[in-house]
Amino acid sequence: MRWYISTNGVVVDRDQLKGLQARYARRALPIGLTVEELDFENTPSSTDVHGIPVRAWIRFQDCAELIDGVVYSWTAKAVRVSWEDGPVRRRTWVWASAVTRKSDLNRTLGERTQRDGTTE
Question: pTM, whole model, 2 decimals?
Answer without folding.
Answer: 0.66
